Amino acid sequence: MIAMKGRLYTVIGLATCVAFFYMCFGDFEFHPPQPKMRFVESNGTQFFLDGRPFYVNGWNSYWLMDQAVDEFSRPRVRTMFKAASRMGLTVCRTWAFNDGTYRALQVSPGQFDERVFKALDLVIVEAGKNGIRLLLSLVNNLEAYGGKNQYVKWAWEEGVGLSSANDSFFFDPSIRIYFKTYLKTILTRKNHITGIEYKDDPTIFAWELINEPHCMTDPTGDTLQEWIEEMAGYLKSIDKNHLLTVGHEGFYGPSSPPEKRSVNPSEWESTLGADFIRNSKIQTIDFASIHFYPDQWMPGQPFSEKLKFVSKWMDSHIDDGDKDLRKPIMLTEFGLSNLNKDFNHSQREPFYEAIFNIFYKSAKAGRAGAGTFVWQLLVGGMEEYNDDFGIIAWERPTLYGVIKDQSCRLAEVRFGESWTRSLSELNC
Which reaction is the catalytic activity of this chain (predicted)? Predict the structure, then answer.
């Protein structure tokens, strides 16, 4: 009886300690030490990791930070990373911004919601646990999640804005200060789980200055060029570890020769104030990004014509990376819309394969095509975050196989006969 009481008191004591720990540190999550990651670097037209060329088979899940805020939706983040790891995917592109909207990270200029910051901390940790790196985008040219329009509203409401026009984001001195404050806060953020500042965390593959920048009020491209130069230089003055890209769609601007501008889907794209080669040549920009949406760029064209445009668009930009920029080229968004009149799910397989084949051949030849990112992957129960390009890959077995095969091919190029990474898991 005395022994039973002793055991009972021991259990009660342990339970009390656990309860006390939970009350004090209820939002703390323990994560066992993970294999140490190293920073990905660039040298000429290629990325390198641990002395070997590094090729990316990646994807977009813009919603990760948003879904990591609340406990009920947090498992979606973990599910996505685990599924991506099983597919051999290596880098995820996601938003590290939400300005002035629902669940905003930055609720007003320089003011941040710690709850949302902790969600971003968690996204970084979960990525690292699954061997995934992150390409973090820092602001949106579009209105979704605040974007440059929100910065303009803030300046206008505070009476310091020069103009209410969206493009004043790029030239208004007050707004430039707002954005630099945001950059410094992000770069020096200390992850509450790991204690590592973002600028020192190799789980972050690279930063992207802005998603799909346009400055249509200055079609010469000078305004956007000056903004990129200033912000890229500022970011690099704080963070010397990470790679940086602009966030371009790849449209050729007025500084490009006519034969390059003819690659654009139409003449209109050269008037957007963005200039792919000129913007990407900036010294502090480490690699160039392009996007590819033939449904939006070639409305009404049959699927066969869109497939033909794949080679024209990719080959032109990889050639730029090899000969003019001498930098890696990343296709950071691509997709095929399900809203087309002639759409069939089976079309996505040859579409993805056409793109993957070009980048695989580029990797084998040691050329500038360094990787691709599907737009976008989701998990179940996320209809409100879906669009006409989103897929739940494991619900499409054939497409799942196409994506995983690309992971296997790129890993084989990187490691050759010495490749030992998770062959049984990937079933390569």
Answer: Random hydrolysis of (1->4)-beta-D-mannosidic linkages in mannans, galactomannans and glucomannans
